[in-house]
């Protein structure tokens, strides 16, 4: 697959991807893992932006991680299997979203670079946005998207394709163009960190660098900053419903569906991917669905937009629009489970008469017994 990628970049470009933070809005799932390793269509979510960068032709990727994080480098690796070089830099304190640019300066050097949060997922890839950045001779470029809930984000004020101002979480309407956490920069951005003072909006005593002060300093100094709109699907996967939405999007866009497992007396409908070593017996599966390695599904219904990780067991149950992480078990649940996220090695065991449409989010190694209603 990787030897078929067409390189589209005519000078060295790197990527700096953020994979730090604590993922507090996705607890308890993030109590035991880096948020960016949560699965989307049975693939760590950070792989979406990594693959977008690779498709753009980027060959060197820097990933910012929390101090002492050994799990993400172990899972993602050094990039050799993807045909790229992946390096990691640790951040000791939470100094804001833009701070990794400062600490990665020596690794980035004199190259242009993609700068993105590791939990941003978008449709259509990055090629046209990068072309806009290059063709317009910009020193900075941000992807923006229209949102009705603009008050919850930093917003962009534009004049044509030119960015003229950014405002963090405006209380009154100024613009509904929200800043995604996806940018392109030249090394000109490093100048900002020598000039602006970080702020401490949370009163923690830890100074932080946020996008608006950095961007507005560049604009004020005459650097050209442009914007391009994401007209398709975009998601910042910060909430459980966002993770489920991203999973559904990834399943819709997935192209390489195949049946490699063992299927017995089972009805399959739609796009379904079942890995080798899995067994489906006397069940019904309606895609899009992806099933990992070593999975057992018996006497069950698996509905659309469900991802089932390696080593899971589903028996005598109904599940749809859900994510089951590796090693989890759902057994004898008579009601339909939907919009669920089950952490690794968790168990959901049912009774005989339960309310339909149960939704659950469980961390790793949890066990839930759904008692019957009398």
Automatic annotation (TrEMBL):
Which keywords accompany this UniProt record?
Nucleotidyltransferase, Transferase
Q: What is this protein called?
A: Glucose-1-phosphate thymidylyltransferase
InterPro entries hit by this protein: G1P_thy_trans_l (IPR005908), GMPPB_C (IPR056729), NTP_transferase_dom (IPR005835), Nucleotide-diphossugar_trans (IPR029044)
Is the Acetylation keyword given for this protein? Answer: no
For the keyword Transferase, the answer is yes
Mind telling me which residue stretches traverse the membrane in this protein?
none
| EC number(s) recorded for this UniProt protein | 2.7.7.24
Q: Which residues form a coiled coil?
A: none
Into which EC class is this enzyme placed?
transferase
Which residue range or ranges hold the Mannose-1-phosphate guanyltransferase C-terminal domain?
A: 285-368
Segments forming domain Nucleotidyl transferase: 14-252
Q: Which domain of life is it from?
A: Bacteria
